[in-house]
Design brief:
The protein has 21 helices and no strands. By secondary structure, it is mainly alpha-helical. 74% of the residues lie in helices and 0% in strands.
């Protein structure tokens, strides 16, 4: 009995030391995500100048200028996914439901259970929704119990891990969307890859489920002790009561702005358009239909047009830093593509691959490229032109190769802070403390997914 107690004390001491080291390391050495984007721009330029076949200063500058603006349309689509998801999650019915659900939470382990139960399905439906739900649930739990706030927010971000394995996966959706400029498979083969062959395949579901289960079981053990914890300032985050029509002076303008009939009418108008689209083209989600679906749900939940506008204003204020980073990552994408740097990285792995191992090597190269191009869609524009032809020449499974790139994006997101910006902005905490805990998720998911992709390839 005494030996068991001593072992537990030793394990707890190691866990506390690891958590403390991670927090100190990230707080001291990790700069703001926008600064990381700036630094990566120069790192990519230097690599292109030294390694790429078209790495002259003029080539690099032209590629950066062109790439910075090629990503604008895609960036707007990604922001719409995030904004429409935010509008759903910030609606009064959803917030009330979240507040009610957290009342039973009294321990860190229960906090993890609830976080995963809410964030995982929300993320699978819409990664923007999952991000916002994670931030809101962390805030509500932090009001309920005394637990490290950075750890709570990191738990929400960890539960969001499967963002590229769900219905809003930009890589899977683009390959399932006819005529999408990012559909490299269709451009090379004339065929699309249905979601049943990508998202709903065992190749995707098995590592996704295993990672979610493993991280959910392990994460509670890394909750910091009281002496190392940072808590939510509850007074700073008291929500303003939503305006109601009874507090607004009536006028023709306010009658329209606060008309639930107008929101209901436009929601059903959009639903009719969506239903007609599905009738003519078959039921299935692509980027556009997913955005429209969440727009409809958000309008119905927010009830009044002005309430929906206010929710969008709040979302835009919190996601501005991400929008600012898109042109720089677009420029990085441009440098990697136009100079041939991405080709050098990807072709290296292709040369050492076989039909069975190509998904694994695509996974490994995807991990590297994600740190330079963290947007999944932009990332696919860099890596897709090399891995899809390789899959065709090696007769490898194209859906497996596609999803190996997407799964690696999930893993690398736990260290690349690009998508952590909105959740920390909504939650109101420094990103460095959050990433200290998600680095643990990175290790867990790297082990689980690399083994799974290798065995299932």
């Amino acid at each position: 009995m005494q030996k068991k107690i001593d072992d537990n004390i030793g394990q707890n001491a190691i866990q506390r030391a690891l958590v403390k080291w991670c927090v100190i390391f990230f707080d001291r050495y990790m700069p703001d995500p926008f600064v990381i984007a700036l630094l990566l721009t120069f790192v990519t330029a230097a690599l292109a100048m030294g390694l790429a076949p078209h790495g002259t200063p003029a080539d690099i500058l032209n590629a950066w200028y062109s790439g910075a603006f090629k990503i604008v349309a895609f960036a707007f689509q990604m922001m719409l996914i995030l904004v429409t998801g935010h509008a759903v999650a910030s609606s009064r019915p959803v917030r009330r439901a979240l507040s009610h659900l957290v009342t039973w939470v009294t321990t860190p382990r229960q906090a993890v259970m609830l976080m995963y139960a809410l964030v995982v399905p929300a993320t699978w439906l819409n990664w923007g929704l999952g991000l916002v739900v994670g931030a809101f649930v962390a805030r509500e739990i932090a009001r309920q119990i005394k637990v490290d706030y950075g750890w709570l927010v990191a738990c929400g971000y960890t539960a969001w891990w499967l963002c590229n394995s769900g219905l809003s996966s930009s890589i899977a959706l683009s390959q399932a969307t006819h005529g999408n400029p990012m559909n490299i498979v269709e451009q090379l083969t004339g065929q699309i890859v249905p979601l049943k062959h990508s998202l709903f395949s065992g190749f995707t579901l098995i590592p996704t489920v295993l990672t979610v289960l493993c991280s959910a079981l392990i994460f509670p053990y890394f909750c910091p002790p009281v002496s190392q914890s940072v808590y939510l300032d509850t007074e700073a985050f008291i929500m303003d009561a939503e305006k109601t029509s009874s507090s607004v002076t009536w006028s023709p303008r306010t009658a329209v702005e606060y008309s639930s009939v107008l929101s209901l009418a436009i929601a059903f108008f959009a639903l009719g358009a969506l239903g007609l689209h599905w009738h003519e083209h078959g039921f299935g989600f692509d980027i556009d239909s997913l955005i429209l679906s969440f727009l409809i749900v958000g309008l119905l939940l927010q009830k009044r047009p002005v309430s929906y506008v206010n929710a969008v204003k709040e979302a835009i204020a919190q996601t501005g830093p991400i929008l600012l980073q898109f042109p720089f990552y677009g420029g990085i994408m441009g440098i990697m593509t136009a100079t041939g740097l991405a080709g050098i990285i990807s072709v290296f792995f292709v040369h050492i691959a076989s039909a069975q191992t190509l998904p694994f090597w695509s996974f490994i190269s995807s991990l590297i490229i994600t740190f330079l191009v963290p947007s999944a869609g932009g990332h696919w524009a860099v890596q897709g032109p090399f891995v899809v032809p390789a899959a065709l020449s090696l007769h490898a499974s194209i859906p497996h190769v596609i999803m190996s790139v997407a799964i690696a994006e999930n893993v690398a997101n736990m260290l690349q802070p690009f998508w952590a910006v909105p959740i920390v902005a909504i939650a109101g905490i420094g990103i460095q403390r959050v990433m200290a805990f998600t680095s643990i998720t990175f290790i867990i998911s790297l082990l689980v997914c690399s083994i799974s992709v290798l065995l299932l390839g």
